[in-house]
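Ex. 9. Protein: Glucose-1-phosphate adenylyltransferase.
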Amino acid sequence: MLVASQLPKRTVALVLAGGRGTRLHQLTDNRAKPAVYFGGKFRIIDFALSNCINSGIRRVGVITQYCPHSLIRHLQRGWSFLRGEQNEFVDLMPAGQQMEEGLWYRGTADAVAQNKGILRSYEPEYILVLAGDHIYKMDYSMLLLDHVESKSLCTVACIEVPREDASGFGVMDVDENRKITRFLEKPADPPGMPDNPDKSLASMGIYVFNADYLYRLLDEDCGDNTSSHDFGKDIIPKIVGQGNAMAHYFSMSCVPSAQFVPPYWRDVGTIDSFWSANLDLTSNMPQLNIYDEDWPIWTYQEQEPPAKFVPDPHGMDGVISNTMVSGGCIVCGSKMSNSILFSKVRVQAFCNLDQVVVLPNCEIGQGSKLKKVVIDRGCRIPEGTIIGEDPELDAQRFYRSPNGVVLVTQEMFAKLYNFEHIPKVE
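Predicted C-alpha cells for Glucose-1-phosphate adenylyltransferase:
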C-alpha cells in the first residue's frame, strides 16, 4: 500500500527563486523577492523550504538569478543543517549560462531545463516545482500522494478564490474528476468550479511532474523558437492540451492555523500586500500561525539578546499593543501599536509608531511619528520625522502605494538630506 511518507524520498524539489518582484519597488532593488524579510525574523523563501523539510523532502534545489547575494548567504547560513552523507541537501543553482549561446535563464521552464543534467544525477522519480515567493504552509507529501494515486503525469496545485477576484490569476477549468480541461491566463470571465460556481481555481505556481515526462517536455520546449520557455505560459497549457494535467486543491494538503480557518496563501508581491500580511501577524488571531511547533518555519537568525523596553528620560514607560518585537531591539518610552520590529531596531524616546513594519538594523529618531510605513533595512530615521499624515509630502519624499502605505529606504533619505549613502549589507 502506498503511503504519503514514502514519496518525498523519491522526489526532488526545485524552488524558483530568481525573480525580482518589481511590484515591491525599491524593496527589491538590492535583493530578490524570495530574500525579502517577512514576519519579524524570516525571509519569504523560508516558507517553501520549511514546507519541504516538514513534508519529508530533503533534496532541494534553489534556482537563483536576480541579485542573488543576500539569498545565497541566507541559504548558506540557515539551510546547511541537512546531512549530505544521507543524500540530503539544499543545492544552489545560480544562472550559470550553461547553454552554448551563453544565455541567462529565459523563463521558469528554461531555468529548470538548464539544470536538467544536475537533476538527472539525483535520479528522482518525481520533480516538485515550487515558487519561492509565496507565504503558506502546505504538506507536499499529500500533494505527491494525490499525484501518484490519480496516475497523473502532471499535477497543478490550485487555490480556491472568489470568482470575481480570479481575473488576476492563471485559472484552471476542471471537470468533476479534477482533470484540467482549460488553462486561462487572467480571464475576464473566469470559469467556476463544478461543485461551487462562485469559486474559481487559481494556479499556485506549484507543479508535480513524473521526472521522465518533464525531461521530455523540456527538450521539446527548448527546441521551440516560438516559446517563451515558461511553465505558466507554455508548458502547462501544452500539458492541458494533451489531457495530462490534474488539479490538486490546496484545501487537500494545506496546514491550517486552526480548525475552521480557511487555507492561508499570500502572494506578498506588492507593498500593500506585503505590509498587510505582516501586520496580520500582530492581530489577536492571525490567519497564519507562525507559533505552530508541529509545522515550524525554519530560518537563519543571528544570536541576539532579548528585546528590551526602557522608560524615556522623564521616567515614563511606553505603551505597546499588538506588536511583535524581535531579538536585539531596544525601545525607549514610546507608543507602538499594530507594528513589527525585526532584529536590532532602536526606537528612541517619545516616538509613536502605528501600523509600521521595520526591517532589521534600523533606528527611529526621538519624537518621530510614523503611520502605515514600511522601513527598509538599515534606515536611520531623523529625529522628529513625521510620515503618514501628509499624503502629498509623503509621495514627494518616498514611495507611497495606492493604498497609502509609505515605503522608506536608505537611498531615499540619502537623496532627501543630501548625505552620502552607506552601502548596506543584506
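Check your answer against this statement. The chain has two domains: 4-281, 308-417.
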